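Q: I have 152 residues here and want to know how they pack in 3D. Can you give me a structure?
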Amino acid sequence: MTAARANVHGTAIVLGTRGFLITGPSGTGKSRLALACIAAARQAGHFAALVADDRVDLSLEHDRVVARCPPSILGLIEIRGAGIGTIETVPAAVMDWALLPVRAPFEPRLPPEDETLPLPLGRALPIVRVPVEEGAQILDILQALIAEKVGF
């Protein structure tokens, strides 16, 4: 039996009309990737907002994975080495993709085909590995990898 609700370690954002659950171990750059995606999307004139940082409440609603923020951290995002910042949020969003921040050296060089992030809700999200090197153009990378599904 699967849980109807779960709290997971990650960061959830909305870019345009799509939701992204950023996943990975502590210190891999989830919050930094979220901030970079939000800033780049807004600079390009697209809607972008945080749902939750560090902890994400997930539920299965009408067969879709929906992310929400635990009330105690609403509107907060960690800026590693600098502190806790505040940012515009949305109350909930359907999650369409999982983003996995990766750094060089890239092992494996190419990700596994049809890689997914299993969720405790009995569902999985397709994973997109995103390089988080200095100077990486996040939106260009996402559009090159999943152009028709980015949300703008």
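Q: Anything worth noting?
A: The chain has a mean pLDDT of 89. Residues 101 and 130 are 5 Å apart (CA to CA).
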